[in-house]
Specification:
Blueprint lengths: L1 E10 L2 E9 L2 H7 L7 E6 L2 E6 L2 H26 L4 E2 H8 L8 H10 L2 E6 L2 E6 L3 E6 L5 H10 L4 E4 L13 H10 L3 E4 L7 H10 L2 H11 L3 H14 L4 E5 L9 H10 L3 E4 L1
Parallel strand pairs: 8-11, 8-12, 9-10, 9-11
Antiparallel strand pairs: 1-2, 3-4, 5-7, 6-7
């Protein structure tokens, strides 16, 4: 038995190859293989197994493009509706005719795209497992621009990580901000325990030593109540697309970057808007 490399085409000076396994005739005869049969290869560790395709293999291969199209459509519609949809809503939005989904495909999507299903009051809600949290600073934005940015990113929930949720900038103090977010259909939650303590902010305004500020905040974040607040964020973010809010436009000079690092250590992806 021999492995050979064959040129399949040339483009200028570049050659493109395929690899061909030459199987001795007596092996083919002993196996009862016939010319034109479809073969399936399976890689197990550093071994390659080759066998004839079964009817199940052939049927699965025929269905694969249909499944891929179905999977991508479900993924796209659920990404646009992070809170989830039931099957009737999905079917209507995608113009599907089937009364019930293919259960084999549903189980496969649980592995392929992180599909989750929760039954509530007789309805099963489909949603994608959320593994991303966002952060944003309102510096340089009007309240209208800020809300638009959140809506363009399909944010469902904002968590304010300022210790004191007050601002000289119109629209960004707690009362007004929460009201504007409510109008936009976005949940507001203030967690003051995650804010940078007053003494750290005061020291930073005296010496502008960001290295020292971040080192001190990293110590502060290890306090039990702060770690509990981060766990609170995780619980909220699993069901709703969530953004953490502070002032600075550049997250690198904001304490929310340290919160983001802690979340990354816990397995979350963090994106900065």
């Amino acid at each position: 038995m021999k492995l050979q490399r064959q040129v399949v085409r040339k483009k200028g000076e570049e050659k493109y190859y395929k690899w061909v396994v030459i199987i001795p005739q007596d092996r083919v005869k002993n196996l009862g293989w016939k010319e034109g049969i479809e073969l399936i290869d399976e890689l197990k560790g550093d071994l390659l197994y080759i066998r004839p395709a079964t009817n199940t293999d052939i049927q699965r291969k025929k269905e694969e493009p249909i499944y891929e199209s179905f999977k991508n459509s479900i993924k796209n519609i659920l990404e646009r509706h992070p809170a989830g949809l039931n099957w009737s809503q999905i079917r209507d939005k995608l113009n599907y005719s089937q009364k019930a989904p293919n259960n084999v495909w549903v189980r496969k999507m649980e592995e392929d795209i992180g599909l989750k299903r929760i039954k509530k009051g007789g309805e099963t809600t489909w949603f994608l497992e959320n593994d991303a949290i966002f952060t944003i600073g309102y510096e340089g934005l009007s309240i209208e621009q800020f809300i638009k940015k959140l809506k363009d990113s399909n944010i469902q929930q904002l968590i304010d990580v300022r210790e004191i949720a007050l601002s000289r900038k119109n629209g960004f103090s707690k009362g007004i901000l929460s009201g504007e977010l409510k109008k936009a259909g976005i949940i507001y939650k203030h967690i003051p325990e995650l804010g940078s303590p007053k003494e750290l902010r005061y020291q930073l305004h005296q010496d502008w030593d960001y290295k020292r500020f971040f080192e001190e905040y990293k110590k502060h974040i290890k306090d039990a109540d702060v770690l509990e607040s981060i766990s609170d964020i995780e619980g909220r973010a699993r069901r709703k697309k969530t953004v953490l809010l502070c002032f600075e436009k550049d997250f690198k000079v904001c304490h929310r970057s340290i919160i983001a690092e802690e979340l990354k250590l816990r397995g979350w992806k963090v994106n900065h808007l």
